Amino acid sequence: MDTAAAPTPIASARDLVKVYGAGTTAVRALDGVDVDLARGELTAIMGPSGSGKSTLMHCLAGLDRPTSGSVVVDGAIVSSMSERRLTALRRTRVGFVFQAYNLVPTLTALENITLPLDIARRKVDRAHLDLVVGTLGLTDRLGHKPSELSGGQQQRVACARALVARPAVVFADEPTGNLDSASAAEVLGFLRDSVDELGQSVVMVTHDPTSAGYAHRVLFLGDGRLVGELRDPTPESVLGALAALTVSRTGTG
């Protein structure tokens, strides 16, 4: 009999509720979400505007506190952490890639990439840094400031910054929202490669079916609830699922 336990999820939520405001103006952004996100996979989160997808990611990543329910990331109970412990978690075990790149304009690409390690006073693993930088095609751009880089190059610097500390999980919020299709494909291809070849776990919020097609699994939210999922998605299957979700909704987000 095989008694090997299944791998623990890289992140999970139980009965997750997030309410903004109070009284008659309260908005229930998350309405009792239960979800497990697999280790070593690229998971995409999708849904109509107002469905709660960014709120879910922000709560999972410790960027926003849930109103109730629990969040666990890499075995740590994020939802009950102090701000000091959350800050330490975000520096060492969680990586972030945002739509707006969030690079420091006065620093070079290399200085931006190593900034989280510098802040945490951790030594840079040069071999891993070289691997990430080389995979992203940034080796000859490390001395450039963000203003000297294209949008795609800036987002690749942001990806390298997220990965260089070997975080347990990378959260990416619309990472290709500001990119043209060619640059977007480069960044998405690297995020998928970071999972398949570097063993990374990635959670990505996106509205784009093509982007979601790079994922192993797509979760669909509607009105703050988990309403469906796809394994091994294609852009076409994602479009079909989104269309069905839109038809089934009684309101707009």
UniProtKB/TrEMBL annotation:
Recorded hits in PANTHER family, A to Z, give: ABC TRANSPORTER RELATED, IMPORT ATP-BINDING PROTEIN
Annotated PROSITE patterns: ABC_TRANSPORTER_2
Q: Recite the UniProt keywords alphabetically.
A: ATP-binding, Nucleotide-binding, Transport
> In the UniProt record, does the keyword Transcription regulation occur?
no
Write one Pfam family the protein is assigned to.
ABC_tran
Q: Name one GO molecular function term.
A: ATP binding
- Please list the residue ranges annotated as the ABC transporter domain: 11-248
Q: What is this protein called?
A: ABC transporter ATP-binding protein
* Ribonucleoprotein as UniProt keyword: no
